[in-house]
Amino acid sequence: MKLTTNELCLCMVAAVKITSDKGQLPLVYHVQSFHLYLAEIAESIGAEWVVAKYFGLPFDPFVDKGKHTADVGKGIEVKWTKYDQGQLIVYEYDRVTDVAVLVTGEAPNYVIKGWIPIAMAQKPRYRHSKQPTWWVTQINLQPIENLRKSHHEQSAI
């Protein structure tokens, strides 16, 4: 899926606003340049936007959802990586009632790779051996078109 130039610009402006509103930078900022950090936030916002567009849902890039509300819809947590063969990474603080959707690529082109319920992703078989995360390979994801047909549709979309 592709975002328009206008949507891409809004993603970057939203990344700047959200970062500015927080008043402090996260620890990750100290290991990369400030502008690279903003670009990654903008890419994440873009990934959320393409998932919202896919499902025909409204999306406001300026809302800082944090971990309090779903990224998209009622219960979709969007996970983004620039790597085409990248894995979906789930954290301990992710809501177990949500589904996680993996999006890969870089602006303006994104690919929705698939989804998995977070409760399923947090199984021992996906647990990373060196950090408190779960890494789900793309082969273990459900195709995105199956989300509408699943019993997760009502709680997620």
What's the structural blueprint in terms of helices and strands?
Blueprint: H1 5-22, H2 34-55, E1 76-81, E2 88-91, E3 99-106, E4 109-117, H3 118-121, E5 133-136, H4 153-156
Question: How would you characterize this protein structure?
Answer:
- There is one protein chain.
- By secondary structure, the protein is of the alpha+beta class.
- The protein has one domain (5-156).
- It contains four helices and five strands, in the order H-H-E-E-E-E-H-E-H.
- Strands 1-3-4 form a three-stranded mixed beta sheet. A two-stranded antiparallel sheet has the order 2-5.
- The longest helix has 22 residues, at 34-55.
- The radius of gyration is 15 Å and the shape is globular.
- The model has no long low-confidence stretch (mean pLDDT 92).
Output the keywords.
globular, two-stranded antiparallel ribbon, alpha+beta, about 160 residues, three-stranded mixed sheet
Strand count = 5
Q: DSSP helix count? A: 4
Helical residue percent band: 25-40%
- Gross morphology is globular
H-E string: HHEEEEHEH
Largest sheet properties: 3 strands, mixed
Oligomeric assembly: single chain
Radius of gyration: 15 Å
Low-confidence stretches: none
Strand fraction equals 15-25%
Mean residue pLDDT: 92
Calculate the terminal CA-CA distance, rounded to whole Å.
Answer: 18 Å
Structural class: alpha+beta
Largest sheet: spatial strand order: 1-3-4
Number of domains: 1
